[in-house]
Each structure stands twice: as structure tokens, then as C-alpha cells.
Amino acid sequence: MKKSSALILVFMLLSVSAFAQSRVNAKDILKDIDSGKAINYRGAEIIGDLDLTSIQDRVPDKNNKPSRHSTQVFWYHVRTPLSFVDCTFKDDVIAYYSDDEKNETHNAVFHADVSFQGCVFQGISAFKYSKFHEGADFTKTTYHEEALFKYTEFSTEVSFAGSNFSNDANFKYTKFPSKVDFGNVNFRDLANFKYTKFPKGVSFKNSVFQGDSIFKYTKFYEPFDFEGTEFEDSVDFKYTKLEGKSFTKYLLKNRK
Known about the structure:
Elements: H1 3-22, E1 23-25, H2 26-34, E2 39-42, E3 45-47, E4 50-51, E5 58-60, E6 72-78, E7 82-85, E8 88-89, E9 93-94, E10 96-99, E11 104-110, E12 114-117, E13 120-121, E14 125-126, E15 131-132, E16 136-137, E17 142-143, E18 147-148, E19 153-154, E20 158-159, E21 164-165, E22 169-170, E23 180-181, E24 186-187, E25 191-192, E26 197-198, E27 202-203, E28 208-209, E29 213-214, E30 219-220, E31 224-225, E32 230-231, E33 235-236, E34 241-242, E35 245-246, H3 247-254
């Protein structure tokens, strides 16, 4: 075999090996979480549902007393940091699900830093009722299906800057105790921020709302940045407040 041919063969084998290593089974990640390993992937393709409500560290809600008419709540504690950079999730990412037959809800709690920077969610991304006790980074992430962050609780600053929501972006009742960055985001479908509060400020600078957007009962506080924001469809600012004052007056004052 000629030297050049041998080099080509080695390169091809290395390329195949690198491709194989970039495909990760979600079940293996869940096993690592159960064993307490820090999760760190870059440029990987995650195959299968990353179902965080299937990990072993599960406890019932102490404040929830189940009865025939109430829902039993279970919390799944993710105690290891999660870092996914430029990864593609081929299937669902599940941090919440509701079992209607058993009248149960299952929710994840993240005790360490979580990053989905530059990732692509091709399936469902369900973080409803989830709690993030440390940093959360969702910058430049693409969501092909509904991004479900309804009732989600963040403890520190969180960024969705540069993200692309192809389907519904549901942030209804979401708790943001620290500043939030939604700058340069493309909302292609419904963007729902009804009843959401931004007590430490928020930026929607240069973001585009292509579908309907709902900010009904939303409460904004400074620093507040809507510079360059575009609304291409209907927008609801009914009962919206900025620093406790009418948001409608703010819009009229700043209308060009």
C-alpha cells in the first residue's frame, strides 16, 4: 500500500471514530447523572429521550399531601452540573411530565449549573415546574417543538439570547428573580409571557416576534430594554405594568 493511500485510510478511520463518538445515547447520560458524574458534551448528537424524570434521586413533595382530589408531586434531583455546547437532541428533553391516570406530576430540580448553549432541540423540551438553583444558560439555542417553561423557577441570571423558537415559547408564570436576556431572539410562533414577572429587569433588544405575543398581566422593572424589538403579529399588553405604572403610557411615550 502506498504511503498516501495509507494516510487516507487512517484519516477515514479517524473520521468514522470521531463521528461514532459524537453520537451519545441519552440513557448513558442518565446513568452518569445517577452515578454523580459531571456531564460535559460538545458537538454531540444525543439519541433517545433525555428523560430526567427517570433518574433514581426521586422524592415526593413534603408539602404536598395527596388525596383523591389533589395531585401527587414528585421531585427528581439533578445534583451534578450539566453542560451541553453545540449539541443536537434528536428526541425529547424531559424535565416534567404529568400522569393524568395516576394524578401525578414529575418535575426536575437542578442543583448545579446547567448549560444548553448553542444546542438544537428537535423534539419536545419540557421544563414546566422545573427549578434551577444555580446558573442556567440557553443562549443561541434552537427549539423545533414547543419550548415549555411554564411555572419554571430560576434562581440566578439566565440567558436565552440569540435563540430561535420555531414553535410556541411558553413562559407563562415563569419566575425570574434575576435579570433575564432575551436579546436577538426570533419568536416564530406564539410567545406567551402572561403573568410573568421580571423584578430585576429584562432585555428583548433586537428580538423579533413573528407570531402572536402575550404580555397580559406581565410586570416589568428596570433595567428594561425593548430597543429594536419588532412585533409582526398581534401583541397583548393588557394590564401590563412597568415599575408599577401603565405600560401603555410607556408605549405611547416611546412610539416613533
